[in-house]
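The data layer described in this paper is built around a simple, fixed record for each protein. Because each token names a local backbone shape, the row as a whole describes the fold. We quote a single record here, exactly as it is kept in our systems:

***
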Amino acid sequence: MSSIVATPVLFPLQHQHPRLSPSRSMSYNTTNSAGRKRKAEDEEPPPDDRMSTSPSPLLHQRPLPAQKITKRPRSGVTGRPLSLSRLLETLDADSLRGILQTVCQRHPGLGTEIEQTAPRPSVSAALAVLKHYEAALQAAFPFGGNPTSDYAYNRVRPALLNLLEALTDFTPHFLPPNEPQASQSLSFLDSATEVIHRLPDWSTFQHRLHKHNAYEEISKAWTLVIQEAAKRAGGIHIQYGGWDQKLTKHNQQSAGKLQEAVDEMSKHLGWMGGQSSTQQYGGRGDDLGSVRQELLSGTYGSNLPVHVGPW
């Protein structure tokens, strides 16, 4: 039995190069490109095994939490007044004193609080104020002419009254019982008396009353301090320190206007067994240098009960 192989019938159109239709061509290209893409993907590792160095697009798309931004107000460049502390730094003593006086006059209660809060004035501070007024008095004198004339008095009268008023105000501050330490009281009175010595001796008697009254008041102050000092610690503050000699010298410069204080000093020193400078130096109040000169010349003690002859 012979086998018959079926021979396919070839049509003329199959020998020609057929033109692919657009649908077949697109299907062919799509299939081939898809095959190639799958082949390339098969050769690459799985997406889970690959490490990408580029940031994931999901991170950029993920919304970040909103941050609270605190805006600080900027200090604008504008004019403003100084604070109180800076303002006080720019004031001098006279301006500050005037402001305090004005405020205390408007609010009397603040004056008492300031008096209780302010530190206690020292002797040196009080003398500095007196020196300031004394310098103002000297600066007020006219150039040339007689410095003790009525014209000069009228020129310096305001400055003179300011000095005397300050002296009148400061003296009671350093007297007992306001000042418990006798050494402080005596130290102030010694310097204050020197200020009175330097006051002008005016030609007119009425103008000289200012200095006379100042001597009278300072003599009473010396007497009060001596009396109180004699009651404390056995009067050691007046027995030592040479205060009797200083007071005697002041009495001489004032032409005896402090005699009341000198007598008070002599009385307490005699009661305590000491000798005042008046008794020691024959009522002249000389210092030790003068006594040495009298000893060398052989005239020392000529007015004492016991005569000391020449060497």
Summary: Confidence is low (pLDDT under 50) at residues 20-34, 273-286, 306-311. Residues 100 and 205 are 39 Å apart (CA to CA). The first helix runs from residue 12 to 15.
